[in-house]
Amino acid sequence: MKRYGTVEALQKSFGTCPPWGDLSPTQTRSLYHTLLPRSLLALNEMGFVTAEDLAPLAYEARIAAKEYARSRCVWTGRVGVFLFDQYRSLRDKGRLIQPGKSSSMSWEEIWAKYEGQILKEHAEKKKKGGMKVKELDEDELMMQTYMRILERSCSTNQTFDKLFLPDKEGGNGSGGNNGDISLASIASQLDHDVRTILLSPSEISKVEKKVKKMEKKQLKEREKEEKMQRKADRKKEKRKADELG
């Protein structure tokens, strides 16, 4: 996963830009969505790779995606992000980010954050459920923390999504063209490379079959929803016609 785990690796794969940037904030947000390691989460959901193996990779890939996307943003957007990062660091940690340092949390900080969340959630469940809630042993806590890191590495801040992707309502921004960047091509390349790196040929074949099956199911669901919507629209038009008549 070295190919996508650093900004330099992403630059080699998807190119660089002029010092002043070449993407608008909206385009930058769409690129960031596309680069998130959702392919890793999908492999775990399909049962091919454990969260323990994938979480560290997803953590690194998310940071690289964020920094690479920001490097492509126009300079005015980068200034705004820099000021916001400094404000958040001062608010949360009581100090400014030093020059050359990343605004992202370290692996240790991320681990402590999500482990603490899980322990707090378990304590609340135990308080409500009493003896019915099983104790959380060390191994289970560790696996849940790995899974939480993997999942959160693929999620985004909905407030920023609504601000910069209003037409997509916080969607994944993985389709269409983004300036000179084809987001669909990037997403396809990421999926292909992740499978090639982490899976055997037989496992890749199984994944592709599962993906096709899922896509077929999603297509049927969309067609069903569209059919229901058309039916509802016809009923609405009929009511309006009856009222006018």
Quaternary state reads single chain
Record the strand order, biggest sheet.
1-2
Order of helix and strand elements from N to C terminus: HHHHHHHHEEHH
**Main sheet attributes: strand count, strand direction, barrel closure:** 2 strands, antiparallel
The separation of the N and C termini measures 66 Å
Helix content: over 70%
Total number of strands? 2
Poorly predicted segments: 169-175
The count of helical stretches stands at: 10
How many whole angstroms does the radius of gyration measure?
22 Å
Strand content: under 5%
Task: Calculate the mean pLDDT score and round it.
Answer: 86
Which term fits the overall shape?
globular
Short description:
Helices cover 71% and strands 2% of the residues. The chain is built from 10 helices and 2 strands; from the N terminus they run ααααααααββαα.
Characterization of this structure:
It is a single chain. The protein is mainly alpha-helical. Helices cover 71% and strands 2% of the residues. The chain has helices at 7-14, 25-35, 38-45, 51-72, 75-93, 107-129, 138-152, 158-164, 183-198, 201-244; strands at residues 177-178, 181-182. A hairpin with a 2-residue loop joins β1 (177-178) and β2 (181-182). α1 (7-14) packs across α4 (51-72), α2 packs parallel to α9 and α6 (107-129) packs across α7. The chain starts with 6 loop residues before the first helix and ends with a helix.
